[in-house]
UniProtKB/TrEMBL annotation:
Pfam family for this entry, one: MFS_1
All residue ranges annotated as the Major facilitator superfamily (MFS) profile domain in the record: 13-431
Family: Belongs to the major facilitator superfamily. Phthalate permease family.
InterPro entries the UniProt entry points to: MFS, MFS_dom, MFS_Na/Anion_cotransporter, MFS_trans_sf, Sugar_P_transporter
Localization in the cell: Cell membrane
Membrane topology per record: Multi-pass membrane protein
Gene Ontology MF annotations: transmembrane transporter activity
Origin species: Terriglobus roseus (strain DSM 18391 / NRRL B-41598 / KBS 63)
Protein name, as recorded: D-galactonate transporter
An annotated GO cellular component: plasma membrane
Length: 444
């Protein structure tokens, strides 16, 4: 009699999260890669370019809470898949703005980036929700680190690609190419991703492994589909009443400030402050980004090993975050050298540290109340990506006022320090927050 086989479908799922998230970040990073060419055509100074770079995040932040409610009510697969289609169409439309007069093109592109931010709002709350369903607690650090490393891989892949396209064709072609590639991805998504208990290839042994280890395998299955919407102000206030969750949210704001520096101003910094061509920028930015990928995956592995050895969530999650943010502080050293090789090396170390410490989604998968995983992730992402609005604007203002990136690097380094303070002194013990249905509905 043959022994039942335990499948490993969850690894295919996290691979799909990594690919989809890479394309999502690729859509965000395109604007920074084409920023110089676009600025010349549309006559943008650093301040106006900062507004354009932040446009995505305005709607992205506002749409976070509705996105969380949609995920909890309609399930991750459907909402996430429609999101991919939505940003694909926005990317294609963005390319056509290049044929409009400069003032009109700026307004149209700003609006399309707003729309793209709104439709991409479910992506990372969806990632956190899917990982909570598909992975036991002891594997979540690795799984979350894999999809979170997509932000660095996006620069590795899309940086050189879009740098080559904008050099040999035009900036409009970058948006068209990204949009068409994402449309193909949406078709693959719908054929590959399912809820745990509905996946056609999963074995009962794997389902049991997930459930015994603390995975929420019943999410989006059967009666769970019929649960009422969690999107109420009472539920939001309840989440904000938890000091642990608020500390996690503040920490994520600070860590995301580093992310948005790397996604928006970093290629422009290499071009303007270090005098590289855009083609060279694409390749130069890929080395630090590769270090970010390595740091991100390593941080998840180390966190899971610490959890197995200590059985202490706080030690396992906080240690990589603190060490990683300390590494990210090294970017300030770029202000004290004119050697391009040293600059790239320091940025590579900063990227590595940012990746190593970017365990916020792991923490939120561990800490979110079971019945509000989508809403908790969306509120977490709302706080985090407020930095996506402010960071491009603040850096644009600093560069315009000082004519230099020096204070901008100090500001980003200060955000890394604040993340350390938040996790060490505000978060406290990391555990799953639990609220009764009466509390969620405001009847307790």
């Amino acid at each position: 009699m043959s022994t039942p086989r335990q499948t490993r479908v969850r690894y295919l799922i996290v691979f799909m999260l990594f690919v989809a998230s890479s394309f999502s970040y690729g859509d965000r990073v395109v604007l920074s890669i084409v920023g110089i060419a676009l600025s010349k055509q549309l006559h943008l100074d650093p301040s106006r370019l900062g507004w354009l770079l932040s446009s995505f995040s305005w709607a992205y932040v506002v749409a976070q809470l509705p996105a969380g409610g949609l995920l909890d009510r309609y399930g991750s697969k459907r909402v996430y898949g429609y999101s991919i289609i939505g940003w694909s169409l926005c990317g294609i439309l963005a390319g056509f703005t290049g044929y409009l007069p400069a003032a009109t093109a700026f307004a149209a592109l700003f609006f399309i980036r707003l729309l793209s931010g709104a439709v991409q709002a479910p992506i990372f709350p969806g990632n956190g929700r899917i990982v909570a369903a598909w992975f036991p607690s002891a594997e979540r650090g690795r799984a979350s680190a894999i999809f979170n490393s997509s932000q660095y891989f996006a620069l590795v892949f899309f940086g050189p690609l879009m740098g080559w396209v904008v050099t040999h064709f035009n900036w409009q072609m970058c948006f068209w190419l990204g949009g068409l590639m994402s449309l193909v991805l949406s078709a693959v998504w719908f054929r590959t991703v399912y809820s745990v208990k509905e996946h056609p290839s999963i074995s009962q042994l794997e389902i049991s492994h997930i459930e015994v280890g603390g995975g929420l395998a019943g999410m989006d299955y059967g009666a769970a589909r019929k649960s009422p919407s969690t999107l109420t102000w009472k539920a939001v206030r309840l989440l904000l009443s938890s000091r642990m969750l608020v500390g996690i949210y503040i920490g994520q704001y600070c860590i995301t400030a580093l992310t948005w520096f790397f996604l928006t101003w970093f290629p422009i910094y290499l071009s303007q402050a270090r005098h590289m061509s855009m083609l060279k920028v694409g390749f130069a930015a890929s080395l630090p980004a590769l270090c970010g990928v390595a740091g991100g995956i390593l941080g998840g592995v180390v966190s899971d090993k610490l959890l197995r050895r200590t059985s202490n969530l706080s030690i396992a999650r906080k240690t990589p975050i603190v060490l990683g943010m300390l590494c990210s502080l090294t970017m300030i050293g770029c202000n004290y050298t004119d050697n391009t090789t040293i600059v790239i090396a320091l940025m590579a170390l900063a990227f590595f540290g940012k990746g190593f410490g970017a365990l916020g989604w792991t923490v939120i998968s561990d800490a979110a109340p079971r019945s509000m995983t989508g809403l908790t992730g969306s509120l977490f992402n709302l706080f985090g990506n407020t930095a996506g609005i402010l960071t491009p604007l603040i850096i644009g203002y600093i560069v315009k006022r000082t004519g230099s990136f020096n204070l901008a690097l100090v500001y980003v380094g200060f955000m890394a320090l604040c993340a350390i303070i938040s996790y060490l002194f505000i978060v406290g013990d990391i555990h799953r927050a639990e609220f009764t249905q009466e509390q969620i509905e405001g009847r307790a």
